[in-house]
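MODEL INPUT / OUTPUT PAIR
PAIR INDEX: 1
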Amino acid sequence: MLVIYGSPLCPDCRVCKANLDAHGVTYHYIDINESMRNLKAFLKLRDSLPVFEPCRKAGSVGIPALVPEDGPVTLDWEGWMKQHGLPIVCRENAPACSIDGKGC
């Protein structure tokens, strides 16, 4: 099953979830703000995988993070959807949550 690490505070995470829900994709969502356990699980992933290197350097969080059962972790939820033949149907015009406006 697809696992997604995210936060309801993150506009990108909300849009990602809305798109997956619109297509009926089954996933397990882990809210990193919900508990210290969830945050630590995400940080362990974030600190160990090279895909998060640009986030670590930029000081961004790196969410939404998609952890597919059968593939590499990705921060490109739109690309993941396209690879699975799922068009983007929901968009949100909220600003990004990082200081530079380039993502979470």
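PAIR INDEX: 2
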Amino acid sequence: MRFTNGGCIMNTITRSAFIRQGSVFAVSVALLGCRHPVVSGHTSDCQTSADSLGPFYRAGAPLRADMRVAGDLGAPLNMDGIVYSDDCVTPLSGALVEVWQADGAGAYDNGSADFRYRASLNSGENGGYAFSTNLPGKYLNGGQFRPSHIHFRVTAEGHQSLVSQVYFENDTDIASDPWASSPEAEARILPVTESENGELQVNFDIYLVLAS
């Protein structure tokens, strides 16, 4: 199938990737995705918008770039990006990027010493970060499922801390979710591509704001 997105031609395939309480449903995955535009922020044209911290944040996640858990239901997923400063072009080295998510069945590790699906990373000299994980599952929030998502908390010297979440294109639960369906979340609904080895790939560049 071919369709246009912001003037870009994209090809899609169907992949059983998203997990809902242990069951699999189909999602359209972009193979030749175009970079998503960044939502305009309040103080900068490229500010990454914030999202809810949620109740499952845990401080002290270990420094690591591989969060995968053997045998999990979620499809293998690689994620990378660059942390930028307020001017939209200067990469920030040494930024602390904390990430956390549910497992493939939609459960968070809220107490074990393993800190499953939780990690801390430091951005490199060029501002880059990268980690490997499994696609998060979904869980009920009241009477509806939250879409698959990954949480981010990003801190860097001289900049405001950012708490946000990313979602994935073609997730059918985005429209009913009050956070993911917010206009401010539009640029955080990310295209998913597939690498040559069949693993999913997502890019998320992060734009911070200078501390006041």
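PAIR 2 NOTE: Residues 6 and 157 are 35 Å apart (CA to CA).
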